[in-house]
Hints:
The chain is an alpha/beta fold and 219 residues long. It has a single domain (2-160), classed as Rossmann fold. Helices cover 38% and strands 24% of the residues. Helix 5 links the parallel strand 2 and strand 3. Helix 1 packs across helix 3 (46-58) and helix 3 crosses helix 4.
Amino acid sequence: MKKLIKEMFLNYNIELNDIQISQFETYFNFLVEENQKYNLTAITSPEDVVLKHFIDSVLPYKDISINASVVDIGTGAGFPGLPLKILRPDIKLTLVDSLQKRINFLNQLLILLNIKDVETVHARAEDFIKIKREKFDVAVSRAVAAIPTLSEYLIPFVKIGGKIFMYKGINLGAKPEKIINFLLKEIESERKILILTKIKTTDKIYPRNKNLPKLKPIL
Length: 219
């Protein structure tokens, strides 16, 4: 497994050290072992987990500033935040999910990985924003949602000048900075990551409650 991880990352010009390789191996083993209990992912083969979860999560790692505070909203099994933290141990990471069982999984995983400066939070984005509005340098998410919906959830968490990464305008006070295009070579799948920069304070009515960002998107 270590060899597979090392070689697959090298295909994307990412050279892991021995500690990172071991951490990704531990991540994979624990994810597969606990998957039935927590219903974390339908992807379980070694190659697919490394490519579609680990590598996909870290593709924009160079666009995060040194020592940035990063919040991952709807993190699930820790993607993309935790792979980014393994590759970039300097960042301060907060993992947020609305299901306690996923937070339980992440807490156990963090002990196994021996990773510091990671906080796990059991909360909905609409509730967590009440205490963490505009507190983070970066917000990320791989949640399955349209860009307008995801924007409404992520942008309020970020400081002015901070960045939002959406693994897939915006009338909430952010402008597109760039779109990163990647080709996941092994499966010939094109991947786009939209990076936004926050340019003004977000109105406190956002994100709206009662699932309105999804039911009635503002864009």
